[in-house]
Amino acid sequence: MNLSYNWLAEYIDLSGYTPGELAEKLTMAGIEVEAMEESALVPEGVVVAKILERAPHPDADKLSVCKVFDGKDNLQIVCGAPNCDAGKTVPLATIGTVFINADGSEFKIKKGKLRGVESMGMLCSSDELGLDGDHSGLLELDDKLEAGTPLRQIFAGDVAYELEITPNRPDWLSHWGVARDLACLIKREAKMPKIGKLIAAPASAPAGLVSVEAPELCPRYTARVIRNVKVQDSPEWLKERLLSIGLRPINNIVDITNFVLHELGHPLHAFDLDKLAGQKIIVRSAAEGEKFVALDGSELKLAGRHLVIADAEKAVALAGVMGGLDSGVTEGTVNILLESATFQPSGIRSTSRELNMRSDSSYRFERGTDWDMVETASDRATDLILQLAGGELVTPLVDVNTGRPRFEKVICRFDRIRSLIGADIDNEEILRILSSLRLEVSELDDRQCYVTPPLFRLDIEREADLAEEIARIHGLDAIPVPPVKSVLGGMRKDDSYYKNQELRDQLIALGFYECTHYSMVSEESALKDTAFNGDDLVRIGNPLSLELACMRPSLTGEMLATVERNISRQNTDLKLFELGRVFCANKDMYPEERHELCVVLSGRKHPERFSAERGELYDFYDLKGVIESLFEQRRVQSFSFRKSKDGKFDYCAEIVVNGRVCGHAGLVNKAYTKGFKTKNPVFMAVIQADMLMNMKAPKTLLQQLSQFPSTTRDVAFVAPDTLLHSEVMDFIVKAKLKFLEKVELFDIFRDDSLGSGKKSMAYTLTFRNPERTLTDKEVNSSFDKLRENLAKNLGVELR
Amino acid sequence: MSNAIIEQLNSAVAAAEEKLKAATSENDIENVRIEMNGRKGIIPALSKEMKNVPPEQRKDTGIAFNDAKNKLQEFLDAAVDRIAGSSDSSGECDIDLTLPGRKWQSGRKHPISTVMDDCVSIFRRMGFIVVDGPEIEDVYHNFDALNTPADHPSRDPGDTFYFGDGRLLRTQTSPVQIRTMENNDPPIRIVAPGRTFRRDTPDATHSMNFHQIEGLYIDRNVSLGDLKSALLYFAHEMFGPKVGIRMRPHFFPFTEPSVEVDFSCIMCEGKGCRICKNSGWLEIAGAGMVDPNVLKNVGYDPDEWSGYAWGMGIERIAMLRYRINDIRFLYENDVRFLEQF
Question: What does the alpha-carbon distance between residue A623 and residue A684 come to, in Å, rounded to a whole number?
């Protein structure tokens, strides 16, 4: 809502509050000032002047030399405007006047010469004064103005505020409403505008002028008929008020209804009585398919759920939302019917939203209006119409209503209020605040009272609502800050965030960059993870676009998009992960929501190092090693990587932990990466993170450190390419060599000298006896036997 | 007593001594050690001759072997000491110390995670437990139980994502509050960090998914003052001790009284700058005292219990902290962006 400082000052004394201080006051009271715009203030030193004579400049065709009276002296002024004729009343910037240019620089009027002729000031156009209007010449002022009058008295500056009014406070949606609240904040009185006594000529209204067929949607409808009005431009003061809040003046009648809406907060509508068939008003539900052309020209087809204001034949207004094109006040209007009513808020809201018709009226009606203001606003507008448009009031207020409502009283226990706010506000202060807010206090004792809100306060139903008001007026800044109440924060096992954080931190420690992607993806991206088909996707009913229509079933699609995006930007060395929630509609596969971990490696391992290391590329075993270290950190021992097939990979392993598949790791399908601007392979692992995060580490018990030295033996052999490392390991383990502590692969290579289909493998075996030093003999006998058996049973050629 | 083996031993040790005296590097010393005592060295080779020594000489020969080994070790140690000493005293270093170190590249936490982790750890320190809830929610937990009017605009399909079955993507982390209160008796002290969704078309300042953290404290005699002190502590931990906070009255359906919480601008310390639009304040959190209707909805007696709740946007804090001017950067995952945090 827009609010004008000057307009507000009509109802409450703002002296001592600069526009900035007022903004602060309002904001801290819950009326948030979102923006503040100062309209230009005419510079000091500009006065009303009379042009006495005009003569041509001796040396310049376009300039004139004028003799001007500024209220004290006759001055010679050189002027370039075409309309600086003798006899006109115009603004004069006297010597010393300072103008502020748009760029903030200053421009000072000095005594000077223009083409050799002395000039003692400057006559001004509206543009130069920062005012609206014709820019082609001098601003022509009313001849009745006295010379020497400071122009500031005629064109006062103003400040327009843009307010954010929360939906619970429709009573703030007007200048009067803000003034009324401000009155208790700054402890000054707010004064309602004076309304003249309204006397209707003949004391009775035509029978059947108003009938309300839907009283539940329209609990109060009032009308007045004013005849013989003169529709014309509004006076300057009224135009200025509307302009100050960004409204365009139209004609006096329409302007008055708009003015009263922004003054008192109650929407009004003026009909051209002669355009109402039967000269009557019927408030009814629209007929199915009833046509209506609104004021803004939009043609609507209505339904029974829409409330209309109709005449004897047709809908003439969409109740509370917008008037009709054909029934409004125009220049030719002579007789008017002034509507002031209340409508049921939810009805207005749904109609306005459904038909996408919004207006200042619907904005207020859908939030709720003040029952009592129906009459006051009608009185105010009628009074102004009679003043500004003439005419005769020919009916008293025709008022069809369901009876004035009464709000429930609310208990106010003083201790409870203090406890909720956390401030020691005494009973007297509480009562002062309540009464300054025009809340009615009853049944008062030392501990409590009852409070009945006025009909304009639609938001006070519970004690907490009273606490809010008392805290607000007392000042939230005045609430003391007690020491932080801290208690034991429960068990870590109950902290759901912890495991997540732990896993992320482990990957970061391993050198990975964490990524975050949107939860919504296109179907194409979703199905990049070939574990899912279209039926497994959780689809959004009202997506923003097809690109964002599915909840991601896997992190795969968006992670690959990130890889591609990075590579296209020449970031080719990638070590990325995301830990995030993914969604699945197929309950047999996964729960609806679960956590997934996606890890990607591609490019150089050590781009920041030099020499030979710099060129080393990631391979599958780097990825495998990362996963192994995640298991190691959880002390999981029984995991394995099994050959598997999965459409998103060219080759891949399924990661099996305790017999359950926990994820896949492999080389990303070339079909996905073929467009990437790199030849480097892309390795990816997709892991069911909940399984990983919930793995319980077995108990760790100290193994005594042996005091005796170990001894090692190496065995190297040439094996067929098909022999797996795991077969070698299993074979050695099964051989159960005495004192064997560990076996490590230390070399593997393929070479022409070995012959095709062959590889060389070399293992180091470490032996140790925890009780004494091993002798060579003890080790050699079992080691030699192992060598023999390797050659015999695995078909390898010892080296 | 002497024999050929002993003589050879002695002369080999003497030769080794000379070489070690002349040695200039650790490498030279190691070469002498290998020549003498390596697997194929002089001493092991001579020890194989032991079997040819007459029995009566064996004892002396054995002693000679021991002496030779001990002497050799002495000479080796002396040479090592000499070289170590000389490099100390010379104070010279012939490697290029300015070459880059072989870095163990550490990873990077995403700025959203960093901010979220920071928030979580601050509130953990005040005793808040972290809880979690589903992102696909029902209308009851996301709106009804939170006292949202049936025709509130936030329920509109233009603002909220719905699924065919009437469920929705949570628009706030608040349903976690409801679920926690439904399943636990007061007192309650939780924070709920997580992802939330609103039907905003992405641009520099909007994202259809974003992150929030929300807190709830229900106990006897909890006041607005307690809310203020908890958030002031948070402000100091998060942004430093100079940061102040202010509460402004506001309106939310799920709290009454409701406030918006501003932090004094972290850029200009409240003096006024472009970031805070010259106001000196930044809007950070929405908060208030839990509405009595919300308490009733979960079966708590609003006359016995009271509590505060607050919520704030993680992206907003991250963008302020790192001066990220486009929210979409956070979801783009360009490594040149990620490596800055």
Answer: 7
pLDDT in tens, B103-160: 888 899 999 999 999 999 999 999 999 999 999 999 999 999 999 998 888 898 999 9
Q: CA angle, A369 as apex, A367 and A372 as ends, to 5°?
A: 165
Least confident range from A26-40, A370-384, B323-337: namely A26-40
User: Strand, coil or helix: what is A53?
Assistant: strand
pLDDT at B86 over 80: no
Encoding tokens for residue A27?
């904001």
Residue A669 phi, psi (nearest 5): -45, 130
Q: Is residue B162 scored above 80 in pLDDT?
A: yes
Q: What is the H or E stretch that residue A48 is in?
A: strand A46-56
Q: What's the confidence (pLDDT) of residue A134?
A: 65
The verdict on ipTM greater than 0.85 is: no
Burial class (CB in 10 A: 0-12, 13-18, 19+), A331: exposed
CB within 8 Å of B102: residues ≥ 6 apart:
A606, A609, A613
Residue with tokens 């009202």: A542
pLDDT given at position A18: 87
Interface with A, mutate which of B103, B105, B115 (most A CBs under 10 A): B105
Minimum distance, in Å, between the CA of residue B174 and any CA atom of chain A: 16
- Chain B: closest CA distance from residue A156 (Å): 26
Structural domains in chain B, sorted by start: 2-89 (no CATH), 111-338 (3.30.930.10)
pLDDT (mean) for A609-626: 93
Which residues does A773 contact at the CB level (< 8 Å), separation at least 6? A708, A709
Give me the pLDDT at residue A430, please. 96
Integer Cα distance of B255 and A468 in angstroms? 10
Share of chain A above pLDDT 70, in %: 98
Cα angle vertex A462, ends A458, A468, to 5°? 80
- Contact between A269 and A361 (Cβ < 8 Å): yes
Identity of the residue in B127, B199, B232 whose CB atom sits nearest the CB atom of A544: B199
Identify which of B197, B223, B291 has the shortest CB distance to residue A421. B223
Q: Is A546 on the interface with B (CB under 8 A)?
A: no
Look up tokens 């060598």; give the residue. A787
Structure tokens at A456: 């304009």
Mean confidence (pLDDT) of chain A? 92
Mean pLDDT value across residues A381-402: 92
Q: Is A462 on the interface with B (CB under 8 A)?
A: yes
- pLDDT value of residue A39: 76
pLDDT at A341: 96
Mean pLDDT of chain B: 91
The H or E element containing residue A364 is helix A360-365
Q: Give the Å distances, CA to CA, from A126 to A89, A95, A631.
A: 13, 19, 79
Å between A204 CA and nearest CA of chain B: 42
Residues A250/A372, Cβ–Cβ less than 8 Å: no
Q: Which residue of A has its CA nearest to B126?
A: A486
Per-residue pLDDT at A133: 63
The answer to whether residue B167 neighbours chain A at the CB level (below 8 Å) is: no
pLDDT at B89 over 60: no
HSE-up (13 A, CA, CB side) for residue A450 = 7
Q: Which of B106, B229, B334 sits opposite A483 (nearest CB)?
A: B229
Q: Which of A513, A517, A597 to mutate to test the interface with B (most CBs of B within 10 A)?
A: A513
Q: Which among B20, B12, B18, B15 has a CA at the least distance from the CA of B64?
A: B12
